[in-house]
Design brief:
The protein has 340 residues and is of the alpha+beta class. 61% of the residues lie in helices and 6% in strands. The protein contains 16 helices and five strands. Strands 3-5-2-1-4 form a five-stranded antiparallel beta sheet. Strand 1 and strand 2 form a beta hairpin. The longest helix is centred in the last third of the chain and has 25 residues. It is elongated.
């Protein structure tokens, strides 16, 4: 979907928290500025010069978006901090010294993230507009490069995925067995109560989820779930399976559709689910928007920016393709078998 960075603080922050993309953008832009405290910074005057707008325009934006910009590296230097800058800041080019007012009592500086943050806000600057498009292109290219060209199964790069998937399959079998043994309905009951669980957790039936993620016919929905979602689905399936078993034994027969439906309504309304469901919704909605460019409209209120550790979790050195993890798992199982 087309992103308008000027209107979306979540999209802006997702980019600014993705250090892998920031590194690539920095290589592409190749700015000249100052080195201070071991990092690249620009003065307010340099920023205005680059974006070809007035100082007043930049000051208006820093006032309006002060909290966001400060969170991403904008700083106003005063007192000792300003003195340190005047003494220690090294211009990357001799001409950059012209942007430094030695007599100033305060000095606004932007590190590279704050400079990009401003590019995502400025609507008066053609350069900012062009940079926004470059940013979006590089972010997509970086994620695709890290994931081998697609993000459909980016969830499987998480080191927790495989463990959750294997355990979930076991609980799934217990769930389908309980439906078979204790519910007096035809085979329709399996997709029906699977959908009831999905709707209870993330407000979408399997078909709706497939459409949002643009899954193909042979793609399995559960193979695209994040570990936290798999764990919660497993908890629902196992917990409801036990309730079906207990209720069927209590009444001495299989449950009707109406009885099963009422039992599920009571089951999903248990207060213990709320914090777990809220967490799963935040994870699914936020990660899918950032990584898969997929918007779950039913979960829009749960979308938050991803933190830097989330990008490391799914794009960093510890993240791996599922094939690698399966190969490692086979090696572990083989070693265990050899010990027997």
């Amino acid at each position: 979907m087309a992103k308008d960075l000027t209107n979306s603080s979540v999209d802006r922050q997702n980019i600014l928290n993705n250090q892998y993309a920031i590194n690539e953008i920095e290589k592409a832009v190749k700015l000249q500025g100052f080195i201070f405290d071991g990092k690249f910074v620009l003065t307010l005057e340099q920023v205005a010069d680059f974006y070809e707008v007035t100082l007043r325009t930049i000051k208006n934006y820093t006032k309006k978006y002060e909290t966001e910009l400060k969170q991403n590296g904008y700083e106003v230097l005063r007192g000792n901090r300003l003195s340190d800058f005047k003494l220690k800041a090294k211009p990357m080019d001799v001409s950059e010294i012209n942007f430094l007012n030695i007599k100033a009592s305060q000095l606004a500086i932007f590190d590279f993230r704050a400079f990009l943050n401003l590019a995502m806000l400025l609507v008066e600057s053609e350069r900012a507009r062009l940079l926004r498009q470059t940013i979006l292109d590089i972010v997509i290219d970086t994620i695709n490069a890290k994931t081998g060209g697609g993000t459909k199964y980016i969830n499987q790069r998480d080191e927790d995925f495989l463990k959750s998937w294997f355990k979930g399959e076991n609980y799934r079998q217990q769930f389908t067995h309980a439906l078979s043994a204790y519910v007096n309905m035809g085979n329709f009951k399996y997709p029906l109560y699977t959908d009831r669980i999905y709707v209870s957790i993330f407000k979408e039936k399997a078909a709706e989820y497939r459409a949002i993620l643009r899954l193909q016919k042979n793609d399995k929905v559960r193979d695209t779930f994040y570990a936290e979602v798999l764990d919660l689905v497993a908890a629902y399936e196992y917990g409801f399976a036990k309730l079906l078993e207990e209720e069927s034994h209590r009444i001495g027969r299989k449950l009707t559709f109406y009885e099963t439906d009422e039992l599920f309504r009571k089951f999903e309304k248990q207060s213990l689910w709320k914090p777990l469901v809220d967490k799963a919704r935040v994870k699914m909605a936020s990660r899918d928007l950032a990584f898969r460019d997929a918007l779950h409209l039913q979960l829009e209120e749960y979308i938050t920016p991803l933190q830097a550790e989330e990008f490391e979790r799914f794009l960093g050195e510890k993240s791996k393709e599922l094939a690698e993890r399966l190969e490692e798992a086979k090696d572990v199982m083989k070693r265990l078998k050899d010990r027997e």
